[in-house]
Amino acid sequence: MKTNNKIKKKIQSFSFLLICLFILLSQSNSQILSALPMDKYQGEHVTEELRLLIPYKFKEAWIKAEKEVWDPWLSIQDGYLGRKIFWNKEKEEALILVNWKNKRLWKSISIKEVNEIQKKFEENVKTSLNVDANPFKLIYEAELVEQV
User: CA neighbours within 13 Å on the CB side: how many for 51?
Assistant: First the structure.
């Protein structure tokens, strides 16, 4: 009798796990799964998303440095379509959306060149604020591909 109860409980537990697994698998959306590999979008517009911490007291210096350093450099990059800059006062957080003709052109820019421009940007900021370190921290970066 004791053995039968143990077997019944194991069968019930196993059945419950199978039902949960079935529900979980039936919830997956094949459209989402096929959209995951971003390398399929080499020929489509892509948006670079950057989020930075920008303290309120340094906001104007940040915008000035963006215009003086990044804008001229970006404007000569092959595939660059423009960008939008947003700033959230409550979070003291910036959102920069950089639009590119396609991922191939965007990623063809060498990391060395990007680092050189970033260094110029940081020197600009440190000089204008008279500080020893860049007060702006990159907190998130990603790429977005328009779906509709």
Answer: 9
Whether residues 87 and 24 fall in one domain: no
Name the residue with tokens 């779906």: 147
> What is the chain's mean pLDDT, rounded?
85
Residue 12's domain spans which residues? 2-35
Q: Do 48 and 83 fall into the same domain?
A: yes
59 and 130 in a single domain? The answer is: yes
Q: Provide the number of structural domains found in the chain.
A: 2
Residues 134, 78: contact at Cβ < 8 Å?
Answer: no
**What residue ranges of the chain have pLDDT lower than 70?**
1-2, 10, 13-43
pLDDT digits (tens, 9 = 90+) for 10-22: 677 666 655 645 5
57 and 108 part of one domain:
yes
Residue count of the chain: 148
Claim to verify: residue 56 and residue 29 sit in the same structural domain: no
Strands 46-53 and 93-100: antiparallel
Contacts of 62 (CB under 8 A, 6+ apart): 54, 94, 125, 136
